[in-house]
Every structure is written in C-alpha cells, then in structure tokens.
Amino acid sequence: MVNYQKIELGKISEIIKHENGKVFLHDILGLTGCEISVNTVPKNFKTPFNHKHKQNEEVYIILKGEGIITVDNDHINVKEGSVIKVLAAASRTIENKGDNELSFICIQTKENSLKQFGVGDAELC
Amino acid sequence: MVNYQKIELGKISEIIKHENGKVFLHDILGLTGCEISVNTVPKNFKTPFNHKHKQNEEVYIILKGEGIITVDNDHINVKEGSVIKVLAAASRTIENKGDNELSFICIQTKENSLKQFGVGDAELC
Q1: Which of A85, B56, B68, B120 could, after both became Cys, cross-link B29 (CB 3.0–4.6 A)?
Q2: Whether A75 contacts chain B with CB within 8 A
Q3: pTM summary value
Q4: pLDDT tens-digit series, residues A66-108
Q5: Residue A25: which region, alpha, beta or left (left: phi > 0; alpha: psi -120 to 50)?
Q6: Is A3 within a domain?
C-alpha cells in the first residue's frame, strides 16, 4: 500500500483558470481530516453568498494580493501573510479589493476534532 | 463573542527568519481541528529526523522552490503547486533541493475526523 497521494496544481496564480478560481483537494486526494481549497480570484471577486458552517471551523491563509474578509459585522483587511480562523457559527465572505489577483488557501476542519499534534502525535522512525 | 482570530505573518519568504523557518498556527490562533505550519527554509534544509504520526494525516502544499518529500522509500519531487497527502503510518521528511528558498504549508488533521464539508456543512445566511 502506498501511504501518500500527490497532485500537481501548477502555478498558484494560474488557478484563476479553474472554475471559480478554486481547486478543492478533499476528493482529489482522498483527504479524511479536512477539506482544503486553493484559490486565485480576479480583481473585484466576492464570495457570491454569506454562509456559516454547521460543524467546521475554517482557516484562511492569504498568499498574495489584498482583500477583505467579513466575519459577521467585522470587515478585516487581509494581505500576504494574514491568517484568519473563523468559527463555524460565524457568517463569512472574502472579497478581492486589490488591483491584482488574490491568492489564498482555505482549510476546513471539524471543530474540536484534533486530539493531539506536533511532538505529541509524532513517532521517530 | 468574536467569532474569529487573526494574525499577520508578514511575507511568506521572511518566515525563514523564524526559528527553524517555521510558524505553527495551532496555539497562536487557538485552532481546534488542525495544526498548520507555514514554512520557508533555506537551500539544503532537511527535516532533522524521519517521523511517522500516531493519529494525524498531513497535507503538504508547496508554494515556492523545489524539493524532495520522502515517504517511506519513495522520493517525490515537489515544486510550486505540488500537493501531497501523507497518511499517519508513513515515515516522512522534506528536503530543499533547489538553489533558493523552499516555502510550504503543512496541515495536520486527525484521520477520519471530517464528517461533512462544502455544501453539506454550509448554511446560507
């Protein structure tokens, strides 16, 4: 049994050519602990709807560009290196407010599902 | 109650200035579903030890540079846009084989912890 799976997305900036500027990794890689989207969206892009989650917290990691993530009534400026955790119960949208593309990764995991991590979960071999 | 937390990492390339070229997000952001490290490591960097995990699968997303991820006995070339899922039971290391910095994100989640995702977990609001 092979203990890994690999895909090639190509340059992150070229993900803009995919449908809605997104690639979802869960189904492609058979992930069992998270859904991940890798995104590059054009100027003026905005999530087409406000949404909350039932079980899952999200982490947004901004790789390039400038935008606004709105969580409930807070408008949060983001740029390269901004990282935001959003709890399931919050409504959220992301908007590209820069003159160029906005690239980001969004990671969705079940709240309170991580039991141990780092050295606590590692085993030297 | 505020439903989000934000930090600023600054430019991803400058994470090389942090200890071991890594920033771990779990404790900083109070994550409950994953540990995430954001990494920029110098030429010739190699994980100092082979390790497996007890519970957690990992996803490596390469943002910049060129390297080799070794999973068990397989040496896998990676570059911008390469994404690899590694099961808990596999041993793994990552090595920078390029002439420049290697930037990547590593996401650690408990295997089989995600119960629903995407539209199945979303609620319009």
Answers
A1: A85
A2: no
A3: 0.97
A4: 999 999 999 999 999 999 999 999 999 999 999 999 999 999 9
A5: alpha
A6: no
